[in-house]
Specification:
alpha+beta; Jelly Rolls; Beta-Lactamase; six-stranded antiparallel sheet; five-stranded antiparallel sheet; 5 helices
Length: 262
């Protein structure tokens, strides 16, 4: 069994390394991502026409520029912070080289994307306004000019598939975390006959090893279902996982080991 699990872990790691979509450089296509791209593009145009005078509008809470946990931020080409209404103490600082919990120098990546592509998405770990705990965030950045000087403007949103909706939080009676580090999480899942867990996600890449024969029904958010059978000893690796709920429709207990990349 251990060989199967280790093989599953190795395969999941290879999939993450070889599949650009799994690297989370860009968020899944969504209305929220489209809205932020449009907002940043509009803000970039205003910066070019009005310069820093546009910052007054950008700094108004509960406006088209700052709503919920989404807000605009701006840097010059040396990564000096020009605008950050949610974290105003950052204005005037230079976070060049600052890394998130996973070692990504995300401010520098903002600059790299703006200079090499003109615009694009960057993913990283960053606290929500008013919090200190880190959360997964995607930001869209775009090259612009502010008062005639090359600059960067961007905005982002936090991943909704974070731990508040992870399996072990949504259904702790079914999903038990048995090991983890900064990169990986290993979960033991047990469904009694007829038992269904609550809506949850496993992140972007997940591998599983069936400890027993299982007959499961997958419930999707749109009401559709998918039914399938797993044999003991079988493995599975999936990427781009959507929120779902699993139901044991068999007559015996179903047990699996689940491996997640954080």
């Amino acid at each position: 069994m251990i060989k199967h699990i280790l093989g599953c872990i190795a395969l999941a790691t290879i999939v993450m390394a070889s599949n650009p979509a799994a690297a989370d450089e860009a968020p899944p296509t969504s209305e929220q991502a489209t809205k932020i791209e449009a907002m940043v593009n509009k803000a970039a145009a205003l910066c070019e026409s009005k310069g820093k005078a546009a910052f007054t509008e950008f700094s108004k809470r509960d406006s088209e520029w700052w709503f919920g946990n989404t807000y605009l931020f701006a840097y010059d080409q040396k990564l000096n912070v020009l605008l950050n209404p949610a974290f105003p103490k950052r204005v005037g600082t230079n976070p060049s080289g600052e890394k998130d919990a996973k070692g990504k120098a995300f401010h520098d990546e903002f600059l790299n994307v703006a200079q090499t592509k003109g615009s694009g998405w960057v993913d990283y770990m960053f606290p929500k306004p008013g919090q200190t705990e880190l959360s997964k965030k995607w930001s869209y950045v775009k090259a612009t000019n502010i008062n005639g000087t090359p600059a960067i403007i961007g905005a982002g949103f936090y991943d909704t598939m974070d731990d508040v909706r992870r399996s072990f939080v949504a259904s702790p009676d079914i999903y038990k975390v048995i090991g983890e580090n900064e990169q990986y999480r290993i979960i033991e899942a047990t469904w009694q006959p007829g038992q269904r867990d609550k809506l949850h996600s496993h992140g972007k890449t997940v591998a599983s090893y069936a400890l027993t024969d299982c007959q499961m029904r997958n419930h999707l958010p749109d009401g559709k279902t998918q039914e399938g059978e797993r044999k003991a000893g079988s493995t599975s690796v999936r990427t781009a996982n959507l929120n779902h709920s699993m139901e044991n429709v068999g007559k015996t207990v179903c047990k699996q080991i689940i491996f997640e990349l954080k």
